[in-house]
Records
---
Amino acid sequence: MRNLGIITTLTIIFNSFVMQSVFAEEAELIRLQHRNRVSRNCLIAIMRVEDDLINRFVLNRSSIQQEKHFEYFNSYTIFFVLSYRQAGRDILYSPKLITDLAKDVFINCKDSNVSSVVFGMDASSIHVQFGEVNGKFSAFKCIEDVVPKNSNDRYEYPRIMPWGYQACAL
């Protein structure tokens, strides 16, 4: 009987801890941001991805930000920030899953002027960016594959990153 009481107490403590962390995460989701700049279809697609990542215990937060690239300055980027635990890395390094999630958002958010979708690891520069390049939806390529290294064995990054490329070696 005493073991049952201990198990019950531990279950209550665990559940309250989990619920507190879920509420903290939900406060930083796109669906709860009052100034959404997206259509209903776009928001539904974003919520599907948020739910998928929450159910996998990997979503830390999501956001919509104005694109900083000069060619797409009047458009938006959707960010999904994953936890830096193994589960988050597993999602980020699952090409089919991450592409399917990004494509769902991208296709449903075209009417909301969304130019790219980014999945990144919290507290790191590790990320994968998707968007339309040359009329086709795809993951951005690593700029390091096309830029030379200087005499100090460092990449010579362009001042303006070409659309369709991302820095991968940072």
Note: The chain has a mean pLDDT of 80.
---
Amino acid sequence: MPLPNSLNSYLLYPRLVRIELRDLAGMLNDLFSPSGYTLEELEYRSGQRLVLAHDDLTVTFRLEKTRLDEEPLLELAEEPFHQAERVDWADMVRIHRYHGEVTVELAGRTPPDPAMFELMLSICQMATTALSAMMPPSMIYWAQSEQLFLPSKFQLMDDMLFPLPLYLKPRLFSSGRMQENIQVLGTWVDGAELFLGRPLVFEEAPVTVQWLQQRVYAFVEHYRQNELPADGDTFGIEPEEVIRVNMKGRGPISLTLRERGGMLVLQPDPKAPRATGVAEPDDDPATAMVLHEPEPAPVIRHVPPDEEPVKDGLSAEEKLRRASALRLAEERAISRDAQFRHNVFAVLLGARGLFDVQYRNRNKVTWGMTGFSLFLTPLVGIPLAILNWKRGPHYYVTAFATFGAVLLLALSPLALRYSLAGQAIVLAGLDDSPAFSNLSAPTNTTF
């Protein structure tokens, strides 16, 4: 199906405060600066409108002193998905007097490709988060998935690389049947067709809403980047869990839980309609529709029919997070390496200063000066070795070698002054030769 050319979000306000919209451009460009993506100002009206652009992509911020149409928002507020959050959405809709709007639009009539569409989603989310942080609304309406959010919950997804809970909206249904005091639940996944090319439904099963969310998010996250599974393939997340994929025809992709914990579960009733809504009873604590923040789900790996399901792994979303963390760790390691080299050089330079002072005054050296050198120099070298020995073999070896070099430089004046070889050099008068004179430090060497 063709992807949309524009995305919108709306922020509802009971009152407006004066803000400088141009600050939003700086906030967004700071976020995109690592990728070299820069948004330039195209149009600006103080306190009313800001348009930013990059190539064919535009980002528009509007602050309007008008109310949004209440009826569609009140209908959304009555949906079971939003009612389960136990938030008085209807009251927030009624008391709003102004609204802000964020629009991300691609010029032309050609639909965006999947990569561009995902970029548009990310920009719209970041722009909405930025405006919400600058002027907090009472609630946010994300039009792409027709979801209502409190600002605090919306901002929680700012750390996700690809927040599917924002882009996908479960529409729950149930025939009301029970298995072991658990009501069966199924869900349509609105928005899945944008990433999979086909609608997605998880047939009703005796599970919780959170369980359903984890599976559908993991399925979409994995297969938006990979080829769709074959009809009849199965996958599993928990041990001895079997979920079968139905890909027949051109209709929706259907997921059916066959086994859980090695036991067969109640199968969906083919005669029961997949209507939105949950039949009674829904007030039992074991079956109540209480939505939770989705936890990172393990990876989905499809296997051919008649083979054992996958039992463990990481979700594609978690892989992306870990890849990002690895890149950040690599950058920090480079920074630590540079700092470590600087510290090593500083320690060696300080030790060299001691050596220079002692060598130039070797005929006047005293036990006190030598003892002070032997005491002070390791105090610099030992912490360097202790602080770095756990960072890896190359850190440990370098720190150890540095500490050894510091000790060697500290002991060198003793060797020159008190060893037999040193006494022989002094008695022979070789210490006045050019070869030894060249070892003396420049006159401006300091310690």
Note: Residues 316-360 form the longest helix (45 residues).
---
Amino acid sequence: WVSGSETHQGFEVDGSAMDVRQDPDFAGPPVDKPEKPRARVAPWEPPDMTWALVYWINAIVPFALGLAVTGGAGLVGMLLGLALMFGAAGRLTAVSREFKIAFEVGGWIVAASQLFPVLQVLAGAIGLRAAAGWRQAADHSPMISANGVLGGFIATVGTGGILMTFAMGIGMLVGWIRSLRDRR
């Protein structure tokens, strides 16, 4: 604690002037301030793209199921929807490390659920129903098909949005459980 005013020599402490050479905080040799760890070690090192791998693995079953219910221009809409959702996933994981970890952890769990694709079928059915609601899919009971570009796009974005939200939710839940465990 410095009691006094700054002088040309240093500081007044208890009425006597003290310069930097006498201050015990500056007793050791000058050292460089430690740097924060950098995300990349070298400029040629590629960024961590685990989230992209998780994204494309999660797209396998929904894409295969989507091919069964889209035709013609609907496939173009599906591909555009996949590109949009890929960009959204990339942006989301770039926002914060916590989002990236939640997306990856939850994404691996959702990817494993493709072995019994109940979640993927339900998400796809909701996505197709959304496209039908916008009159962009033909409702031939019991099957809905999205044959136009907009129909394929709406169905894909709806399906992907549901699956990504589910993956983020699971990932955040796992993170919360880990934080509770770490507090003990």
Note: The chain has a mean pLDDT of 83.
